[in-house]
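Hi R.,

As promised on Friday, here is the backbone we talked about, encoded as structure tokens. Could you run it through your design pipeline when you get a chance and send me back a sequence?
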């Protein structure tokens, strides 16, 4: 989910039958669209389309904390799509510009 006015990525979690009491956590980012996958319990990977320069940017949650933003480059023409085939095995798809489907793997 993105914040309406500032285009930041915000996050809230559900654990043991209830939503976190801290409200929404701002992860920053200045994004347009996001895709999310999990590689295992308590592991999340989020890939976003940057609002200004259309780069693919990645952030992950592991061992109770979020990484910083990692710019993977590119020139994205649409929302990223991502799937995890297992631990340390991600497949990412984007619509590149000029238009064309581009895929890559992170292992």
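Update: got your reply. Pasting your designed sequence below so it's all in one thread:
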């Amino acid at each position: 989910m993105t914040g309406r006015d500032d285009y930041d990525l915000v996050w809230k979690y559900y654990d043991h039958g209830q939503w976190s009491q801290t409200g929404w956590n701002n992860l920053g980012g200045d994004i347009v669209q996001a895709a999310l996958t999990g590689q295992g319990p308590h592991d999340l990977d989020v890939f976003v389309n940057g609002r200004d320069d259309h780069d693919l940017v990645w952030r992950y949650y592991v061992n109770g904390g979020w990484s910083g933003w990692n710019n993977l480059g590119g020139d994205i023409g649409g929302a990223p799509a991502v799937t995890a085939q297992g631990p340390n095995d991600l497949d990412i798809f984007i619509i590149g510009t000029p238009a064309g489907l581009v895929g890559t793997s992170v292992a």
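One thing I noticed while checking it: The mean pLDDT is 81.

Thanks again,
M.
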